[in-house]
Amino acid sequence: MTRTTRRYGRIAQVTGAGVAALLALNACSSSGSDSGGDSGDSGASASAGASGKVSGTVNVFAAASLTESFTALGKRFEKEHPGTKVVFNFGGSDSLAAGITSGAPADVFASASPKTMKTVTDAGAAEGTPATFVRNGLEIATLPGNPDKITSLKDLTGDGLKVVLCDKTVPCGAAAEKALTAADLKLTPVSYEEDVKSALNKVVLKEADAAVVYKTDVKAAGDKVEGVEFPEAAEAVNDYPITLLKDAPNAGAGTAFIELVRSAEGQKVLTGAGFTAP
């Protein structure tokens, strides 16, 4: 098995904002439904964002693993579009999808898996076809210095080791289950967490010895954890789709935000955070 130790910058504060009051888009903006495939334009009107004339609040529901990179892109968006404000709601993709289908007002949804995005598209809540904008893989997060000498998934099944996983209903948990199946292993964690940040924080707070999380989260945690790669992670890579929502209160700003995410500028931020290009 290959073991890689990584040390990166400090983890960002998760500030999952609730849904803010949204300002209506001015009459000159539009939200067409040009629907491409995964390499298409996510169903948003290209002219709406391209005009640059957007204003007001754009509400973005995004997977917890996107916290650091999307927060950085949100600040860049506000700078590039004076008069706008990006409000994020970060969390488990399944709970975000449930909120959207229950009527929570939002403009953009970025999910950590096609399965959770399908919940939104099946409900008719997406505007057009979602587009994959990045991919993410798994890594084992251990305590600094890796005192338990973990080098593989199999090591996580050792007696006395406290391991946490994401809940099976969220993408990081489903991916972990897929990796464990590929390794032909059974693992009973001390807890299942609601999203990847919660799982990682168990290790950061020394309440667990290890967690199976995304590579991007290990990178964001810096010297608070160490990362261990394992070959079965190749069997559990997640595609991340993004879409404008059908009832977006500020479709023009939502379209422009998606364009930033998918632009060369946006991709540079995302790959810098450890994601891979689609």
TrEMBL record:
SUPFAM superfamilies: Periplasmic binding protein-like II. Residues 1-32 form the signal peptide. GO terms for molecular function: metal ion binding; molybdate ion binding. One of its GO terms (biological process) is molybdate ion transport. Molybdate binds at S65, S93, V196, Y214. It comes from the Bacteria. The keyword Glycosyltransferase does not apply. Keywords: Metal-binding, Molybdenum, Signal. Belongs to the bacterial solute-binding protein ModA family. This is Molybdate ABC transporter substrate-binding protein. It comes from Streptomyces haneummycinicus. The gene is modA.
